[in-house]
């Protein structure tokens, strides 16, 4: 069955109320908008840019890419992977604009899979998404815990200078503390998270430029 995604650029006026395309599309889907949209375009971009965090990815994975792929993969692989990643991003952006619900991925999967496969598609997509988020969050926070360990080691004289070498249990304690801190930060109001996201994006840009 062919499916044509609805237009997401229209603005509909209902009496004295003017609805943007997202609000209008929710009404078409049979939903009333309940959640506030407090994040601006800049805040959304800053959040995505901070999550990607090129600086973090380079510093933690540079050695792996250089050892297993060599200089050629480090130089040209970047552009090749970026091109295909952009295609995925554009596809997801189109689907998101057509189905602007808070359910996100699992809702899109249910709608696009059709009535027969929608329960399975929604279930598998939702679980894979949450497992990926768990794995991504814990891996990034563990990398930060290891980075803190190295900073402490270098600040106290280095490995050959009698510096403090944290045990694996101390590193795990750092990891748990970072996870807890990030959980508390994410419980803050959206306005605060918006500010932190923009601050993080600026910090990433400055870090790349001045090698912080």
UniProtKB/TrEMBL annotation:
Highest taxon above the source species: Eukaryota
Annotated GO molecular function terms are: gamma-aminobutyric acid transmembrane transporter activity; L-alanine transmembrane transporter activity; L-glutamate transmembrane transporter activity; L-lysine transmembrane transporter activity
State its location(s). Membrane
The UniProt transmembrane annotation reads: 45-64, 76-100, 120-140, 161-182
Where is the signal peptide, in residue numbers?
none
Q: Name one GO cellular component term.
A: membrane
Question: Which Gene3D superfamilies does the record associate with it?
Answer: Amino acid/polyamine transporter I (1.20.1740.10)
Listed A to Z, the keywords are: Membrane, Transmembrane, Transmembrane helix, Transport
For the keyword Transmembrane, the answer is yes
Q: What is its main location?
A: membrane
What InterPro entries does the database record attribute to this sequence? AA/rel_permease1
PANTHER family per UniProt: AMINO-ACID PERMEASE BAT1 (PTHR45649), AMINO-ACID PERMEASE BAT1-LIKE PROTEIN (PTHR45649:SF37)
The identity of this protein, by name, is Amino-acid permease BAT1-like protein
Gene source species: Trifolium pratense
